[in-house]
Amino acid sequence: MGKRGLHMGWTEERVALLRKLWTEGLSASQIAKQLGGVTRNAVIGKVHRLGLAGRATPSRPAKRPVRNARPRIIGPMAPRLRMPSSVPHVVIPDLEPIKFEDGKTATVLSLNESMCKYPIGDPTDANFAFCGRAALGGPYCADHARLAYQPSQAKKRRLAPPDELRRLTRFAM
Q1: Which of 17, 55, 79, 92 sits a CA distance of 20 to 30 A from 61?
Q2: Which residues pair with 106 in a beta bridge?
Q3: Average model confidence (pLDDT) for the chain?
Q4: What does the pLDDT look like over 40-61, one tens digit per residue?
Q5: Angle, nearest 10°, between helix axes 28-35 and 12-23?
Q6: Half-sphere exposure of 105 (CA within 13 A, CB side)
Q7: Rounded CA separation 168/75 (Å)
Q8: Nearest-CA neighbor of 93 among 120, 129, 124?
């Protein structure tokens, strides 16, 4: 007995059955069970040594065909979600950062806990500043808090009437 343990040899009948089961599309594990006395790896090794690459049918279930996604339209032509009137639209005036008595605006170094920390402008621009108005119990002034804390998309969808949801799901599929 070798170090691989007791195993059944590859007789002509067993090789013929292996060839038949392989061409029928059975997996190596299924063939090993039917033959008995051999492992899945032994079946795979024998299949390679015999050169049985091609099969009539695949051993795994066929993959579902990939559905081609419709091209996404980005820009003014894309359909827009019309929110029902029950969801208020946030309109924030175009707020400039406040200027202090010395004519400077709020920066990271001049902000304190009672000031609005809403960033205004491009951080790489020399004119970048923070709002600087009085913050109301949080990091932002009342206007910027309304802008920053809008309802999530999921909440907006829950508030949308059912016919609007049906229209939306038609585009999603």
Answers
A1: 17
A2: 130
A3: 75
A4: 999 999 999 988 866 655 555 5
A5: 140
A6: 16
A7: 18
A8: 120
